[in-house]
């Protein structure tokens, strides 16, 4: 596969691939494999290190995006990396989870101003940030974020300015954090376009179900066609993160095998996430980290391993 042969010559291969895009159907690679190569063969040397904006993504819902966003942020903070979680999903699941976590300190939290209010009034996003714990903060969302797509579409802006509105707003705080994670809904919308245009990296969530694999393929196609080709997005794919639904069942292994064939083994995270009841419990109680509790310890160890691999993939020391 091309990503193996040319993996150190990023700038050359991306130029070649763009020239050959009309011949995709005549290569031995599938259309989606080609798209993934295009996404992942950009010059990543310029994007390694800290001050990165990342989103866990898949077109299919229920792949663990929000839980993974929250827990990766938590573990990165525990590893000493300053991390900001930004909830861009009007359903506010990430906000609810982190507020429940913060409320364990018997702290009252008010979401005012909302992310939407900050954006439309051109206010500094720092005004809405809430500290969760050492090295971890949250920029919460409220239901009014449902109006963002409609609002930005009505502004007298160019099409590119409409899809980069959030990116411009985040520019003022990006340097303050090692990592910023943006959480989104699984639907394709102008809001999500803003999120992906703002990102340096995407982690593709792959629940080990056939629909999730198809969702990952469809999402990459959307990204290539609507953001990279149309608006020259610089977003890149950090890796495919498998989420095992039933440990190591035949279906899990079958989907993983298909993913390796489709994307290449090196493009899948070595560490995987397994379905854990403790993560579901966190939705009710907030994130807990009792070092004497075997279930807390087991859950955090899984996400810590993924967080360390993320850091390693980015070349962060």
Automatic annotation (TrEMBL):
Q: Which SUPFAM superfamilies does the record match to this protein? A: P-loop containing nucleoside triphosphate hydrolases
Q: Which CDD domains match?
A: ParAB_family
Regions that span the bilayer: 20-39
Mind telling me which Pfam families this protein's record contains? AAA_31 (PF13614)
Stretches assigned to the AAA domain: 53-225
**Keywords (A to Z) from UniProt:** Membrane, Transmembrane, Transmembrane helix
Q: Answer whether the UniProt record assigns the keyword S-adenosyl-L-methionine to this protein.
A: no
Instruction: Output the superkingdom of the source species.
Output: Bacteria
Q: What is this protein called?
A: Chromosome partitioning ATPase
* Organism, scientific name: Liquorilactobacillus uvarum DSM 19971
Taxonomic lineage is: Bacteria, Bacillati, Bacillota, Bacilli, Lactobacillales
